[in-house]
Specification:
Layout lengths: L1 E5 L10 H5 L6 E4 L12 H13 L3 E6 L5 H5 L4 H17 L4 E4 L11 E5 L5 E6 H5 L3 H11 L10 H4 L2 H7 L5 H22 L2 E4 L18 H10 L5 E6 H4 L7 H7 L4 E6 L2 E5 L2 E4 L11 H10 L5 E4 L17 H20 L10 H4 L2
Parallel strand pairs: 1-2, 1-12, 2-3, 3-4, 4-7, 7-8, 8-9, 9-12
Antiparallel strand pairs: 5-6, 6-11, 10-11
Helix pairs in contact: 4-9, 12-13, 13-14
Bound molecules: manganese (II) ion (MN).
Amino acid sequence: MKMTFRWFGEKFDTITPEQIRQISACVGVITTLYDTMPGEVWEVSAIKALKERVERAGLEISGIESVNIHDAIKAATPERDGYIENYIKTLERLGEVGIDLVCYNFMPVFDWTRSDLAKPRPDGSNVLSYDGSLIENMDFEQMLESLESKRGDFLLPGWEPERMARNKELFEIYKGVDEAKLRENLGYFLKAIMPTCEKYNIKMAIHPDDPAWSVFGLPRIVKNHEDLHALVNLAPSPCNGITLCTGSLGSNPDNDIPAIIRSLKGKIHFAHVRNVKYLGYRKFDEAAHLSEDGSLDMYEIMKAFYDIGFEGALRPDHGRMVWNEKSMPGYGLYDRAMGICYLSGLLEAIRKGRGDRRSALYSPAKEKP
Ligand SMILES: [Mn+2]
């Protein structure tokens, strides 16, 4: 496993690659060109500049999260083939500089949803939180206003104001797109891009829906074991796989995360690891990574990744906001750094318990001559 850290780029993140480098165990960043819109072809010069910036700090780009997919592709409007061509062009440009992991999602209109971006905890920290009873009583406009009022100066990935200004139009194009249709559109997209992915060995890793159920009446097709296996079968290729996000899938207590991991050997290309605390039906708080702080057993999760021979990039996902840090909700430095160290500790114990003496910094990339 390769331990990595999400970084939003110089213009958008409060954290520097130099700070990330000082987190022991971390070998790379997961990043993106955050100022490109879905559908745009990425500029070669911008990709190279990003790569150089990361490498200057002694890190690698371990993957891109995300190359976002234009709604024309998700909803299969007449413009989709042009946008797929653009997507392929971006993949080629990433492949040319040796980037071999791309995370994406196929959620209509917006991606993750929360009712609170900074819910106070008794320990003085705060967390992202979801309360279904609040969300179900809001319409989408109210949801947007609520997030807008809480985000402070920070951008929220997946809720770009430029796109959200068009939300009525976006909802309109998804009329008549049910789960079956959305899955068909995903299959069409995957079949079109797989030859390019195979040529450059780019592993595509779809992110599960967050939370793992339908919100605002929009279809969701990456929620559980069944959906993940259907996705894998849509386009059989070593490059078609999954971002196993424990927190997104874990929002639904019916999802047995270690069992899901074990069932997807060879199909998990990227891992997001975080904990959630169940508070009731469709109600949860995010938590510290520590097992005891939430409802997921992080030891069992890391063991499952180890047992299936997962050697891809893993990153700690959202943390709490601690020590009065000010940053993008969920993406402060401190709690994610504590998270990655905790996960690395679990992994060292699992490895040594199995007689595996590889160093904690082992990563497949580093073994290459
Ligand atoms: Mn995630």
